[in-house]
Amino acid sequence: MTTNLTRLYDSQPQAQRAVDDLANAGIPSGDISLISNGDDDLKNTVDATDGAEVGAGVGAALGGGAGLLAGLGVMAIPGVGPIVAAGWMAATLTGIVAGAVTGAAAGGIVGALTDNGIDEDDAHVYAESLRRGGSLVIVKTDEMRRALAETVLGLHPAVKIEDRRSTYEGEGWDGFDEKRGPYVRSGEVGTRNSPTNML
Prior knowledge:
The chain is α+β, with helices and mostly antiparallel strands and 199 residues long. It has helices at residues 12-24, 40-47, 53-62, 89-102, 108-115, 120-131, 143-154, 161-170, 195-198, and strands at residues 3-9, 32-36, 73-77, 81-86, 135-141.
């Protein structure tokens, strides 16, 4: 039986280190995904590449095990903004982007996460965290490799989802809403700086 282990990190470098160690421990790269909205240097590296060079550009920027993940690319997710995605979830997220363009984006990022075995309440917190600059590492694993994956992930302390949910709810948040648009931190300059975007 296959299960997904999901970990939330506040920065892309934290998530990248977890991915690198998972790959170095022997977890197949095809079973690891990284979704990040927090590394402007990485996005700039990708912005400087085009066509077939996108995967190589992201791979070089990620380095280590993360650079070996398939499906590397940058895409704009409705309600989240531009993200870097690598691994098996990249194809799912590409489907969200294509669906948004054609008007058929059923479920958006929350739907993509729940379709891959993540609890819906948690998926809302993960999506909001991505919107606010966080990173997710998702590992597909069977019972044989689960203990190894959990041990490696345990070396990289992740955000406690319950604590993050409480923080967001304390700010008046009641769930991820892709209509809010990408998150703008107070003090940033931009046309998106409105009270609904800053929730």
